Structures are given as C-alpha cells and as structure tokens.
Amino acid sequence: MGTTSLYRDPQAPVEQRVEDLLNQMTLDEKLAQLGCYWSTAFVATGTFDPRVAIEKMPYGIGQATRIGAATGLHPQQSAALMNALQKVVLEQTRLGIPIIVHEEATGGFCHRDATVFPQGLALAATWNPELVQQVASVIRSQMLAVGARHALAPVLDVARDPRWGRVEETYGEDPVLIGTIGTAYVRGLQSDNLAHGVAATGKHFLGYAMSEGGRNWNPVQLGPRELREVYAEPFSAVMRNTGIATIMNSYASVDGLPCAGSPAILTALLRGELGFDGPVVADYASVEMLMNYHRVAATPGEAARLALLAGLDMELPTTNCYGDPLKAEVEAGRLAIEVVDTAVRRVLQLKFQLGLFEHPYVDAEAASSVFQTPEQRTLARQAVAQSTILLKNNGLLPLTPATKRIAVIGPGADDQRLLQGDYHYPAHLELIYAAPQATEATGLTVPEAAGDYAPGPFYTPHVTPLAGLKAALGDTVEIHYAKGCEVLGDDRSGFESAVQTARAADVAIVVVAGRSGLLRPVTSGEANDATDLDLPGVQQELISALAASKTPLVVVVLSGRIHTLSSIVDQVGALLQLYPAGEEGGNGLADVLTGKVNPSGRLPVSMPRSVGQIPVYAGHRAGGDRAMFFDDYIDSPTTPLFPFGHGLSYTTFAYSDLQIRSRDTTTPIEITAKVSNVGEVSGDEVIQLYACDKVASVARPDRLLLGFARISLEPGQTRQLTFTVHPSRLAFYDPSMRFVTEPGDFSFSLGASATDIRLTETITLTGAVSEYIQREIVATTVTIG
Question: Among the four residues 169, 416, 498, 545, which has the most C-beta atoms within 10 Å?
C-alpha cells in the first residue's frame, strides 16, 4: 500500500510541506514554478483544449496571467476556465502543483461584470481607511469567486511628479497617507488568513514614480536617505502592518542599479533591512529588460541569472528567461541550484498559504452571485462621493431649490469611457482587443483570445454626470446638455451651442475631462507622460467662453492627471476634482453637487500652479519651500495652487484645546484636541497631524505628516481626538545612516491641510539619541471621544 507524501497532508506545518515537495522536484519542475503563461495562450483558437495546455506546461506552471483582464468572459465562464487549467496540472503532471491566477485590481477587480470602483488616487482622496478596506473586501470576494488568488495591487509608489502618467494609480505624494491607505487595502484583500484571501502585491519597488523627466521607466536618482525615509516607507508600513504576500519590482534603475537585477535593492534593502520574506514577482518583461533596456546582461540566461540572484522569484507575464535560458545557467555551473531552490521555496510557501492544494477549484455556477450586487454599487457610489474634492466654492454649491434651469456642459458630462482609469475594465483591455496597435506601441505580445473568450468594450452600467444629475433632480429642474468640445483636438464648433445653453440656465455645471488608458490617444495612464499639465485640447478655452456668458460656473475636473488650473480658477464659482470614478461616478458626484452628501475628499497630492514648479509637495526638506533670495520665482509663488490635504466642506469646523503630553525620545507622545462643527449642516472633517523637528543632524521636512483622522460631526457637535505618536515615527537616518530619534524641540500642528494649520505647539523631547529600526516603526493611533 502506497504512502501519501507529506506535502499533501493539510495538517502538516507549511514549512515541512514545502521542503518535502521541494525535495521531490526535478530541475524542470522547479523552474516551471518560477514561470508563467498568459491565460489567453490556452484559448487562442477559441476553445480550451487540455492537450494544448499540457503541451505548454508538462511540468506545471507557477502562475497563469490574467483571465479576467485579458478576456471578455463573464464570471461563471472565467471560473470554469480557471478550473480547467487547474485540472490539467493537478491530474496530468507528476506532482500536481496547483496554479496561481493573478489579476489586476487597482480600482476594482479588472474583470468583466466586476464592480468598477474609483481609481487608486480617488480612493486615497477619501482619506478613509475603513472605506478602502471595504472596497478591497469586495474585490477579494469577486476574485475568490473566479479562483484568482493574486492581485497585482496596491500601487505604493510615492508620486511627486504629476508629469508621470501613472500618478492616478497611486495613493498620492505622502508616505504616511500611502502606507495607511495601502494597509487598509491589503487587509481587505488578504483578510486575516490567506487561505480565505487574495495575495496582494506592493508595487513598484523602488522609487519608480520619481523618474527623470516624469518619463515612465526612466532612471531614478535618489540618495540612500531619501530612498528609505520616503520611497521605501509605504512598503515598510504595509509589510509591518499586514504581512503583505508579494512585492513587485520597479522597471527603473536607481542610481544606476536596475531594480529587477539589484541584490542591493531586492535583497539587502527589501529583505535585509525591511524584513520581507515572501516572493518578489517581476513587473511584466522586466527580466528581459535587463538585457534589452538597461543593458546589464547580454543574453536571456544572463538576465535570468542576475534577476534570480538579486531576489526576483517569479517571471511575469510569460516565461522568456526563467525557462531554458535559466536551466542552461544552472547546468553550466554559473548559477547554484540553491539559488533556484530559495525562489521555488517562496513560491510553494505562498501556494500552501493560499490553501490551493486543498481547495484548487471554485464553484463556477455560483461565481456570478457576488458580482454587481446592489450593496456593491452602493459602496462604489459612497466611495465616489467621499473622493470628490471641493477645491473652491463661493457659495454656488450645494445647488439650491431656487435653481430651476441647469446647463450640463463638457466632454466629460456624458461619456462613460471617461469615468475609467487606465487599470479599469474595460479601458485596460484596449491593450488586448486593440492588440496590433498594442504590440506595436508597447512591444508586449499578448496571445489574442478568440471566439467567446475575445475581450471587448464591455461596460457594467456606468452612470455619467449628466445621468446622475437627472436621476437626482428628476422633474424639479430643467437640465439641458451641450458637449462643447472633445477632450482632445482643436474643434471649437460646439462652443456656440454650449454658450447658448449656459446663458439660458441659472447655473452651468461644466465637466472637463482627461482620458485615461494605455493606448493613445489618451491624456493619462501608464507610459502616457506629459510636459503640459493644462487641461487637454481646447477645454480651457471652453471655460473662458462660458465664463463670458456671465452664468455662474461649477467646473468639475474629471481626470487622472494632476492639472495646472491657475488659468481657470478665478473664472469659476466652484471647482471640484474628481479622479476616474468608475461605474457610480455620476451618482456620487450628483450626491455632492446637490448637497445630499457634504464634500469631504481631500487632496492626496499638491496641485502645482505651473509645470515649472515640479516637484512641489508638502514634505519637502528644510528650505524647500522657497527660492533664495526673494522667496519666490520671478514669475510665480513657490507655493502650490492647492496644497496637500486641501478640501472644502459645506460646513465649518473649529479646532481648540490643544494639549501635548510628552517626555523623552523613548516614550509615546499624546496630542489631544477638540474639533467642533460650528456650521449648519452635518459633515466630515479630516484632521491632519504634522510635525517639524526644529533642529536635527540632517535636513528634516518642514511638514511631516504623522497621522490623520476622519470624523463625522453634526451641527454644534464637538468631539475630542487623541493622537498617540511613538518616537519611532519621528526617526530618520542620521549622517551615519543610523535610524534615530534625537532629543530637542518639535512642533506639532493640527490642521485641515498642510497649509491650513489651526493649532500648533512646540515641545521638548529630552533623553538620549534613541536608535530604532525602520521595519519596526510604530504607527500613529487615534482615539476619538
């Protein structure tokens, strides 16, 4: 009677199961676990053939790339395809190691019929970790239903250059905000137990968003202190708070070191200093890029060897270097088998943690039941409303019952495609169903799915701003629409009709827009970087023409780009920022415009006055807020047009009673204050806590965000907040690169934005210089009474 291998025993410790399985694997079987296939490679003929599948993966495979984000399958059919792939490897390979299917999930699960939530930057604009965790929980439930167990999200890049096209995917410019929102997202996605969750991926390690010229993939020039304190900190925070399952490398080089092939970045820093112990997965084709882009390798085998030695465990989206080229490196003695074993060990451990050996299949018949539920759409609408940022208001909003005629104007007013970010479904799938153009533009060859598998522009029901306003106001208000112009181009033929429509109205709501995506023509998105941050096309001229009509203007900027709005801000009565909002965009916006929801979104980035200011952000080091000798440019202030954390409300909040209890560099600091709603309507306030180290051994930021709290207050209500700040939160890398908190004077400030500071007090921390470890920073906590 045969015995069952230990690795098949669900009661055995994961570590023992991994070692038992690893010891039984041949070199071919090991290398297969480090590789990947596009899911569409199995259905290129329009049908799934198990014989084709086993020919492609006779030893199994580590991952399958994107069923949802590469096909047009509904959830039930998507789950069936996943089951079919699993059946092949489980029943027709020697060891029966299950596959991980990975997907995109930046603004919702990138899958047909999945809830299209606001894009990443919009989620950050809510400053609401609890809401973000709920969003990620929905993403988890939908991914689990179709058997996708690995999400290539969240984006933890610190975005301080708005020329870069991927800012919309990020959580903004500040490492504490990014770390807090990222923590919430990962908790919602992974849950408390990966066996019931989806593995999250922190990307892109490291410094990716601060590339030269704001150009995608371009080199990054950062010193070791800035690299750690700013750009590594969101990753460190999410690692220590959540045990995030995987990390993805950046495409860029940092000080000449390509991240995909750098032991200093992926091993010494990521694993050694920050303590990460899970798999590192390759951003698509980044192993090959060591050869054909960075030119640090001459052959695919050399590229594979450099990447694996650096600590990059899995090649995505398809196996080009980690197959036969890597095998040749091992057999020639240029790469020790122990290096391969280390990577395989990490991959197998993740598969065991996900419970795939016990539960490789899903119930395909039930998959659709967790897609497009009323509760999910309600959550999406709530997320849109909370992410909407009121930048300026002269009393024009909320719309009053006296408003009887409304003009709705602009290219973004009634176009569902413009509600999409570059990683939303179906905008992202333009990369697939426009495959010839995509291959020519990106060089990324995606096997095209045919027949019933073929992708297309399949939208969930999307609510545009025009539709949302009509639904909100019903027959009580006359609403007339004029497009005015397109997002791009110089056609002004629609101006006259738009101006006439505005003149006949009590107020004009003008929705100007960008177009996010991967394939041009677009205005924002991956590889779509810009030197001009003004509104695209002739939209600024449209606003000027409408302003001349003398009808009060409410301008909504619906765009993933951070635009320079100096030329229009004085022409409008109210100005709002709405990042790519997804399927409930129009309803969520209408809730804010009509006053059903009091606006509470806050900027996760600073908005520059002009592109020449870049970079401009709140956390600049000492002296970074001015230009010597005269403090400003010859043609502009150095301050942003709208600061980080800014956002207005329909009510007014007052701050009072600041008290700080502190002792030394080892004892937590308690900062207490009261916040009151002194206006006439209920609303949410986002209270932001900043600090400044008055004298330090290196130049420290003038404004260091330590934490924040979002609270709801009824008119006349007061609530007390207590922030507890551990001294490790104040630590930095000193001249000797020790991570320390120094004694001395610190100012602590509470405010409604980085520049709207309401309360400040300076205290002295006594004691010795205290040395901490970055991976053990204690997050600021808030108690609300």
Answer: 169
